[in-house]
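Kindly inspect this today.
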Amino acid sequence: MHRIRFVALALPLLAVGPAACGGDDGAGGASGGARVVVTTNVLGDVVSELVGDQADVEVIMPPGTAPHEFEASPRQIATMRDADVLVTNGAGFEEGLTDTIEAAEHDGVATFAAIDAVDTLQLEGDGGTDPHFFTDPARMATAAQAIADFLVDEVPALDTPAFARQVRATVDQLHALDSEVERTLSAVPADRRTLVTNHEVFGYFADRYGFDVVGAVIPAGTTQAEPSAEELAQLADTIEARGVPAIFVETSSPTRLADALADEVGDVDVVELFSESLADEGSGGETYAAMMRTNATRIADALAPA
């Protein structure tokens, strides 16, 4: 079983996460004592699958975190700056960790931004790079292979046949997940593949599976932006004109505006998806694979003809 630890906000430093096994025996392990630290829990789950029992993985953001708003504790900052290797999402996704990531790199921590491995999209709202590549399992498979290559380069103890087998298995599982999501979404005909989301988070998902994102309650790639009354009114008109049956929101972000918009339009469901963060055990979003399966099922249920 792989090992993953969430770095707590307060003492004790290491808290055993839902995917963990064993107690706190230090940051070492089969990786020759290297500290593999990952910023987001979505990437943390994938990295822990990649390394299997070859290393321990320490994750900064706990389940249920809103990544754009997350700020690290002094303990978490120290963990990142003391890491041997640091894996980040990149493209400004970890807004509150930008200074710490830069400080860790300045300290000599080998750092890899997963988004650098994939073909990227631009955000409609501000034209910047969309950081949410992980909503596409095929891109996640590409990123996973690149992360594994980075780990081998930076942690020679991981350059083993066992690690190579674990990486191949994980990448194959991500491609299989991509196919599974596609099959689940096949229930949604082309003329109903329309998404309205809480903020601009499902662009890569839409690009992969042939959906059209016609609007977002918060027209930006971050939940820290605020929509204007005019933007909300325009979105309400779009929802009515297109006959959109659901607004998809994130479990890790407030839904107040989406709820109000649905009430104003009428006959529109607000459906929660796991997008930027994993969730607690048993929620349907406790692992990356689980969250993608749950999202596909909820989208298909909301959009497929009755």
Q: What stands out?
A: The domain at 187-303 is CATH 3.40.50.1980 (Rossmann fold). Strands lie at 3-7, 14-16, 36-38, 56-59, 85-88, 110-113, 194-199, 212-218, 246-250, 269-273.
